[in-house]
Write a structure and sequence with these properties.
This protein has 16 helices and 20 strands. It has 474 residues and is α/β, with parallel strands linked by helices. It has a 9-stranded mixed sheet, with helices on both faces. Strands 17-16-15-18-19-20 form a 6-stranded parallel sheet, with helices on both faces.
Length: 474
């Protein structure tokens, strides 16, 4: 199968969030099972320009250590001269619609120019969604794309690609699109609707989130449209790169380990405690948290529980940046509880690896979480997740039952400080039952959330998209 994978960000070239990880990993996994996948993405300033020219507008590179082709759309004004991807100093670029319209408008003519007919055009998030609208309107009767189906993936419903209606014609589409059944959204245009309305199938990054976005609470005003398209809406949990996230081979860990040498994990814990100026005590449970410090990620309920957690004879290490009010709160609490709290108000990839390896538990108290990768990485490192039951967390973490040994973490459902605190208490109580805890660690380290498993589900999704346009793949 030929798959044209369109993404505004791709690891290791560009990244603001989890989409970049998906775009850098899923095509690699699809390639490994025999599919011809090619990525299309902008060439931002941070991407080297000494790439092979394919056409006047497109250069070619590859995902490192793979044969996955990456096509970089060249536009110096819109992408090559920009320091960041979508915004600068927290403010969106005012010409984002023009930028990503140009990116999408160049995609399908490029395929014709190189004479490469994809079976699937797979667009991701609002920045890529217009490509699907073009495929189904402007190129609807073009024989070149007669056998091409469209898949649209939404990675976070919080970002709809909202712009003033006055900019509609700049997309290359006409005023016939400015109706509620198409791109209009409360007097504006929402570019994500180009994907939701026109794709043959839609997917998001977990089965539970696929259900949640059809509700008023999580649908961001598009729940009605998504309910209308519910028969074409699927959820596939993201994978993680098991070559990258591997405690047995991770070159950045003080001490590497695997399931058979789990007792060596504690050496990473001692280093984590040391780096956070915490007492180096093997027996004290350490809870790690790597997150944006925002309400969406549960910082509001953590704020109401954190002082009680400090009295549970544990240590909490937090890595991330976000809302200034949470920065101030954590600095104040660090002064109050210097032996219990480690605060790192930054993003640090090496420290993140040490948190996954050195912590005993990993906290994700999210209000909503489309998929979540932290819990999957923590499994890999034998670090037990404490999560709220929402989105991908609900699909991937099952509550631990000490009587039966079933479950993979500690789950709370009510979005409250009290529920979070109770889950933390249960985790810490279980931690002190060493035989039970070790068995739980061994179990989660052997779970399979690799991209290999997810890639097979995407192939099935692509088959459904082709079936929608009347094609049964051989």
């Amino acid at each position: 199968m030929k798959i044209f994978f369109i993404s505004p960000e791709v690891v290791p070239f560009s990244k603001t969030g989890g989409l970049a990880d998906v775009a850098g990993s899923l095509p690699k996994a699809l390639k490994e099972i025999g599919h011809d996948v090619r990525i299309y993405t902008p060439r931002y300033k941070k991407v080297p320009s000494d790439l092979k020219s394919v056409t006047r507008e497109v250069k070619q590179g590859a995902i490192p250590k793979t044969e996955v082709v990456v096509y970089f759309y060249e536009n110096e004004e819109y992408f090559g001269s920009r320091e960041e991807l979508y915004q600068i100093n927290g403010v969106d670029y005012p010409d984002n619609l023009e930028r990503f319209s140009a990116f999408c408008q160049a995609a399908l003519p490029f395929l014709k120019e190189i004479d490469w007919r994809p079976d699937i055009v797979h667009a991701n998030d609002w920045q890529s969604a217009l490509t699907i609208a073009y495929l189904k309107t402007i190129y609807r009767d073009d024989p070149f794309f007669k056998r091409t189906a469209a898949v649209y993936s939404i990675h976070n419903m919080g970002y709809l690609g909202l712009f003033p209606k006055e900019k509609l014609l700049l997309t290359g589409l006409g005023w016939d699109q400015f109706v509620p059944e198409k791109l209009e959204f409360w007097g504006n245009i929402a570019l994500t609707k180009a994907g939701f309305v026109y794709a043959d199938v839609i997917n998001t990054v977990s089965e539970t989130y696929a259900q949640e976005i059809q509700t008023v609470e999580f649908g961001h005003g598009l729940d009605g449209l998504l309910r209308f398209r519910s028969s074409d809406l699927y959820g596939i949990v993201n994978g993680i790169d098991y070559d990258l996230w591997n405690p047995a081979t991770d070159p950045n860990l003080p001490k590497r380990y695997n399931v058979a040498t789990l007792s060596l994990k504690v050496q990473n814990k001692l280093e984590l405690q040391k780096q956070n100026n915490l007492p180096q005590r093997k027996e004290v449970p350490v809870i790690g948290m790597i997150n944006r410090l925002t309400d969406q990620k549960g910082l509001d309920i953590l704020a109401g529980a954190i002082e009680d957690i400090m009295h549970l004879n544990c240590q909490l290490v937090i890595l991330g940046t976000g809302d200034p009010k949470y920065h101030e709160m954590l600095k104040r609490l660090k002064n109050k509880y210097p032996e219990h709290l480690g605060i790192n108000l930054k993003f640090d990839a090496l420290l993140a690896e040490l948190v996954y390896a050195g912590a005993d538990m990993f906290l994700m108290p999210s209000r909503y979480e489309p998929c979540g990768l932290g819990q999957l990485i923590s499994y890999r490192y034998g670090t037990i997740p404490i999560v709220r039951k929402t989105g991908g967390l609900a699909d991937t973490v099952k509550d631990f039952n000490p009587k039966t040994g079933e479950g993979t973490g500690f789950v709370f459902e009510e979005y409250s400080s009290a529920a979070l605190l109770q889950a933390a208490k249960r985790a810490i109580d279980t931690y002190h039952k060493k035989t039970l805890w070790k068995a739980l660690q061994e179990k989660v380290m052997q779970l399979d959330y690799s991209w290999d498993a997810s890639a097979k589900k995407y192939v099935s999704l692509y088959m459904k998209a082709l079936a929608k346009i009347g094609i049964v793949p051989m």
